[in-house]
Design brief:
This protein is mainly alpha-helical. It has a domain of 158 residues: Orthogonal Bundle (Arc Repressor Mutant, subunit A). The strands form 2 sheets. The protein has a 3-stranded antiparallel sheet with strand order 3-5-4. The longest helix is centred in the C-terminal third of the chain and has 35 residues. The protein is globular and about 60 Å long. The N terminus is likely disordered.
């Protein structure tokens, strides 16, 4: 793993510069609103693993798939290998990983490999459906952040190249394996990240302000506990407890039928999305460079 894969691309100076960009609020609103709109889940999936875990699980399934080496029968998306990897990274337990693999096969995101290397541990392959799910999320953020970077349009266009997409999957996974965590830069978001549908509810609050409000909104935003529960396939008590716990931690304030995002949460949200954009831009640039090197030498 090269030095670029280990280095944290998110620095206080870079975060501050990005947050000061005149288009940053527009990018944050677009990303937050889009995240909620991209929700794919169910009650069963929520019970198995939270939305952050599902995203990471999908990334690492794709990572093992794209790094398969036909000369090495132990490589690729082998169930035992996947279970151990996600458990070591703290994404979920091996038992839940096995259940997730089964659900992803049932949903058409994974399929058995045609070539059988070991009948006891048949390798799986990622389908176009899983690649499309990842690409949809990447295009959302790359489209939102493009105006913030001089090479933003080039990074967004690079995703049209399947080779860059595969190299990007590797770059993201390797940085995560090397220790990068978004919550290192915005630890106040942990409450939302560790609850089922927490990030989705968080994103909904960020993008719920009126057009003339700030991003995140400073004025109260209307919140329907029942609507959030239905939208994200969780119970009403679950949503209510999340908001109450967020209020206890000073992240939100309840205001009648609305919620006020406190300065603490607003600051953390801006830092989090700046970190996402800086991290993703570094990974895309790594992927573009790696793809170019392969084509020059291949």
């Amino acid at each position: 793993m090269g030095e670029s894969a280990r280095a944290d691309p998110v620095t206080p100076a870079a975060v501050a510069a990005l947050r000061a960009h005149p288009r940053f609020a527009d990018a944050l609103r677009a990303s937050a609103a889009g995240l909620a709109g991209l929700y794919h889940g169910s009650h069963l999936l929520n019970w198995l693993i939270d939305d952050r875990g599902r995203m990471l699980f999908g990334y690492f399934a794709l990572y093992l798939h794209v790094t398969y080496d036909p000369a090495d029968p132990t490589s690729g998306l082998i169930p035992t290998r996947m279970r151990r990897l996600v458990a070591e990274l703290g994404i979920c337990s091996q038992g839940r990983a096995l259940a997730m693999l089964s659900l992803m096969r049932f949903g058409g995101y994974l399929a058995p490999a045609v070539q059988v290397v070991d009948r006891r541990q048949r390798r799986l392959v990622a389908t176009d459906k899983l690649f499309a799910l990842l690409e949809e999320r990447l295009r959302l953020h790359l489209g939102a952040m493009a105006p913030l970077f001089a090479d933003g349009a080039a990074m967004r266009a690079a995703l049209d190249d399947p080779a860059v997409l595969r190299a990007l999957i590797v770059a993201v996974a390797e940085r995560f394996i090397a220790g990068f965590r978004f919550l290192t830069h915005a630890p106040q978001i942990r409450l939302f990240g560790e609850r089922n549908a927490g990030i989705l509810i968080f994103a909904t609050l960020l993008s719920a302000g009126e057009a003339d409000d700030t991003v995140p909104p400073t004025r109260p935003v209307p919140v329907s506990i029942a609507a959030l529960a239905r939208r994200f396939a969780v119970s009403r008590p679950h949503v209510l407890k999340l908001l109450r716990d967020a209020e206890t931690e000073g992240l939100v304030a309840r205001n009648g039928d609305g919620v006020v995002i406190t300065p603490v949460l607003a600051d953390a949200a801006q830092t989090l999305f700046a970190a996402v954009y800086l991290f993703l831009s570094a990974c895309v640039r790594d992927a573009m460079a790696a793809t170019e090197r392969v084509r020059r030498t291949g």
